Amino acid sequence: LPSGGTGALAQWVLLELQGEVEPRQSGDLAGSLLGDLHYTCEGVPVLIVGHHILYGKVVQLEKPFAVLVKQGGASQPSPMEPHGHYTVTALIKTKLLFKTRPKPIITHVPKKV
Amino acid sequence: AAMRSRAEVDATLQTAKLNPAELLPAVHCLSFGPQAGGGECCLLQLEPGLCAELEAGRSLIIRGEKDEHAVLCSKDKTYDMKIADTSNMLLFVPGCKTPEELKADQASCNIIHSQIAGFSKNYWELRRCRPKLKKLRKLLMEDPYEGPDSRKDQASTFSKYTTEDLLNLVQASEEEILHQLQVIDACKIEGYWRILDFDYEMKLLNHVTQLIDSESWPLSKVPLCACLEELGSLEPREMIEHILLSYGRKYVDDGEVFFEMHEDKICRAIAQMLLRNAVKFNLSEFEEVWQQSVPEGMTTRLDQLQGLALVDKNSRPETIFLLKVEDLPEDNQERFNSLFGIREKWTEVDITPYIQDLCAEKQTVSALLTKYARSSMLNGVKVYNSRRPIS
């Protein structure tokens, strides 16, 4: 796994969410929006996905990750088969963990009379 | 899909009833990048030290042929690879900033359009393991070097391996491979790593020990130059120096190179030479012949034969036979099966030389015995036998 080569390795961030990621439309995932990521002034990550608000926390990873990209393009039968050439594209030292149950966004709240 | 505007972001905040005043000004609008669903990206969890190695520009290599479990090698360590499943979804986002980074960079743009590069429900986990070095010896034993006069050598060049070849075939880091080559006394001949054929090795050793004897040199001070001069007509100089390096410690005294000969290693080699010739030997006969066969001034001791030969104290008379640890399986369970197949019950003293090399970093022989064997008492002595019935 050669590392990026010249220059420092890019630093990416991991987003950890519960459940599955599915496109809203029946089409491809590529290009579709996930949501808006905000941080409170205290540094708490807030993710708005569809009609949900997720609160999370910033976690410094005890064991960082390397992101490997398989070289050679040609699709192999099992993508997780470790044989082949890989390049380390980036390192991940931080993750945003969203574990709390999403709070639904209520658009119409009937007023109590 | 069109990129979100600030107005759209603010509208969403309002609907969500979030107060912008309580939030940092910058927002990341996350979307899936063009390759996101492709599955070409995967995550590798790094053990301590590996992150620093990557940042220093060093490479990690995944090694293993189709029939082997893949291992990851750094410059000097080897790790087993295993898939770990999480129940969560992991998305990897380039260019995503942490709150600290945003606060530090006050002038940062208000909207950051971030593309998710990929996602996964699992990642590769690493566990430091023993380098798989048995194959190294196996490869070099395909064609042991029998000396310059051997006609066999001139015939073919296949089954000969360069450093590069070994790196590609052996599941271990470069440093571990180079260190093991030294341990097994391999030498480089015409660019290929070779192991000496045992008979040729003994022939070389014999030249040296006979010369030491006839010159009455002290075993701790054998001069290199004189050896090369006297023996250079019999064998290649590189081979003479190689045998001295294999069986002695090189040092310089007053500008001259000498060798302090390893008494234990020489005695051990001679024992191997004697034991190869029969299935087993009468112990006392063997000890007598062995002592007579070693160079003047050397003393033979049975503990020199650890991991090479085994004494059967239960036979009458007591016998000894060749059992080389390097001929036994590399896998822990297979090793123990093999040992219990040879002998049903072992004392810790007897079995230790045959399982010592299985110990992982910080693992003890006792821990191995607890895991792979069952203990019992036999005539007041603690012995170990197999956990499972041996057919």
From TrEMBL, chain A:
Family membership: Belongs to the CTF8 family.
GO molecular function terms attached to this record: DNA binding
CC terms in the record's Gene Ontology section: Ctf18 RFC-like complex
Gene from which this protein is expressed: Chtf8
Provenance organism: Cardinalis cardinalis
Protein name as annotated: CTF8 protein
InterPro entries recorded: Ctf8 (IPR018607)
Keywords for this protein: Cell cycle, DNA replication, DNA-binding, Nucleus
Pfam families per record: Ctf8
One GO-annotated biological process of the protein: mitotic sister chromatid cohesion
Subcellular location: Nucleus
Top-level taxon of the source organism: Eukaryota
UniProtKB/TrEMBL annotation, chain B:
Keyword Lipid biosynthesis attached: no
One protein family per Pfam: Dcc1
Keyword S-adenosyl-L-methionine attached: no
GO terms of biological process kind: DNA replication; maintenance of mitotic sister chromatid cohesion
Domain of life: Eukaryota
Entry-linked InterPro entries: Dcc1
One GO CC term, this protein: Ctf18 RFC-like complex
UniProt keyword annotations, A-Z: DNA replication
Protein family: Belongs to the DCC1 family.
Protein name according to UniProt: Sister chromatid cohesion protein DCC1
Organism in which the protein naturally occurs: Cardinalis cardinalis
